[in-house]
Design goal:
This protein is of the alpha/beta class. The chain contains 12 helices and 15 strands. The longest helix is centred in the middle third of the chain and has 25 residues. It is globular, with a radius of gyration of 20 Å. The model has no long low-confidence stretch (mean pLDDT 97).
Length: 389
Amino acid sequence: MRFRHPDGSTLHLAYCTNVHPAETLDGVLAQLRDHCEPVRRRLGRDRLGIGLWLARAAAHALTTDPAALRGLKAELDRRGLEVVTLNGFPYEGFGTGEVKHRVYQPDWTRPERLAHTTDLARLLAALLPADVTEGSVSTLPLAWRTPFDTAAAARARTALTTLAERLDALEDLTGRSIRIGLEPEPGCTIETTADAIGPLTEVSSPRIGVCVDTCHLATSFEDPRTAVDALVAAGVPIPKVQLSAALHAEHPHLPEVRAALAAFAEPRFLHQTRTSTAAGLRGTDDLPDALHGEVLPDGGPWRSHFHVPLHRPPAAPLTSTLPVLRDALHRLVGGPAPHTRHLEVETYTWQALPPGLRPRTRGRLADGIAAELTLARDLLTDLGLKELP
């Protein structure tokens, strides 16, 4: 979905396909048929943006077989889909029974991460629509925080510098500008947008910036205006924003609130949980640790890294951080000029929701994704953006 900003620039809204993960190219093609095109039809659109997640096996198939890449592009066109952004965070195995810490491997200290991200950038340059010259790829925020020492930081910095050089060469060759966004996430070496400024200043490339995920932003109790203003003041690009909402518990000391939270403590993904105290941010690496341990103060609200549906907040006594998303969008694209042009709805946890909230059929899932995009569209038009055909 495309929008015209009052300054005349075009913004792109997509949804991320990691909600229906596939490890192979055949699986990706099936996604387009079984999920993406039905969402487009529900929205009554001739064209729908998708943020592709390409696992390592799928990306390898496309980079080694030009005919396969041409086939994917033709299939996107045939089904009324377009791609301006890729999710390069998960490397593989995102649909397995237990992801947890494995999602951070390989990290930016390892050559596999550089090679995979380079491949994604080259693929995106080929997949961009004919009238678009700028693409974005989101990636993990260097690494999980342990083990990570000064030597590891140096290796990651060298890898990102090498990537920036490759992206420069790619634009020289193709005329397409691909930018990478490190995605701050609780528990990682870069947990907040403030944490990103130092490492990205050291790399010092307009190709490498931050992907602001509004669920992660909220989980870490960051103020959206302060976060965006700091990135802009430091000259850190924002190639991409992921529109998402975290799980919020206003009164975690109450037994009924603990019981409601326990329904979201599932085994597949990490749900880092945080609270803001007078002494600073406190947290656990997973929701069960917060519920069953004594380490997390419960005198103030808790927020958990669980991408709850935007259009359907959890039932009381819980809610979501949708207001943080609204505030972030206002600061990012509501001013005289946008600070980003790529927006991606990333609600990938539909099947991790408590059983009674999960969509039971493909049709129900498509309905939910369409509702997410409709809400995002309404937020953008409320800010004065005009939806384009």
